Amino acid sequence: MKKVWLDAGHGGTDSGALGNNLREKDITLQLVLHARAYLEHNYLVDVQVTRSTDVFVSLSDRANRANAWGADIFVSMHINAGGGTGFETYRYPSQEGSQSSLLQKELHTEILPTMRKFGTIADRGLKTANYAVLRETNMPAVLTENLFIDTKADAEKLKNATFLREVGEAHARGIAAYLKLPSTEVTFYTIQSGDTFYSIAKKYNITVQQLQDANPGVDPTKLQIGQQIVLPVTTYTVQAGDTFYSIAKKYNITVQQLQDANPSVDPTKLQIGQQIIIPAV
């Protein structure tokens, strides 16, 4: 499963930019929380955040924690200041044509049109900068500057809760497009003799926590044979000409992983329109 690190700029004693009765640290946190919620609800992905509350985290700690966790990408969200207007994105200078550059393009092309649904937004471009969180991270990393807090027209948008939610979700869609994340569907699993949340999670290559989150009303210690629980996995609808080999190749998994996730499916008798489970990897 892909691992995404979301970084809300500033926090705690570091308010970031100030203007029009707004604080950068508050807005960046809202953007990150909206992005995380959208990712976790719509895609098979593991998400961590630098902060989920108003606390201070040093620049080095932000990068070090993402590196230690083994994040696949790092996205830092900020609000600009200095009297300008519009939206811009940054990557580290030496990474032209790199994965960071590709991530930057996906984010930029998803976020800017979303912002423009709320009015005129200047495109300040895809830029480079020697920012610590871009320099010290080991994975593709991008920093977004989401309008100017000290420009009245921009600030009015930043005060709009719907605008912040949609911009946060646009970050999530850009990330999903770059990582080619599989979307989650509601799939049910029927409890068998001997099943535990641990054994089910292991079978479908998800975490026990993800299984618990998808089934908040289920007591893992009191599973009943025949009981149905929700699996936070993606499903695939069989098309003409599909084989287990072609489907596995499409999702970059092995045929054995596909068979293990679909023990009741005969690979030699696939039917058009049949639903099969795609395990997370």
From TrEMBL:
Pfam families, alphabetized: Amidase_3, LysM
Gene Ontology molecular function, alphabetical: N-acetylmuramoyl-L-alanine amidase activity
Alphabetized InterPro entries for the sequence: LysM, LysM_dom_sf, MurNAc-LAA_cat, N-acetylmuramoyl_amidase_3
EC number(s) recorded for this UniProt protein: 3.5.1.28
Location of the LysM domain: 187-231, 234-278
Enzyme class, UniProt record, top EC level: hydrolase
Sorted UniProt keywords: Hydrolase
Superkingdom, taxonomy of origin: Bacteria
Stated name of the protein: N-acetylmuramoyl-L-alanine amidase
Upper classification of the organism: Bacteria, Bacillati, Bacillota, Bacilli, Bacillales
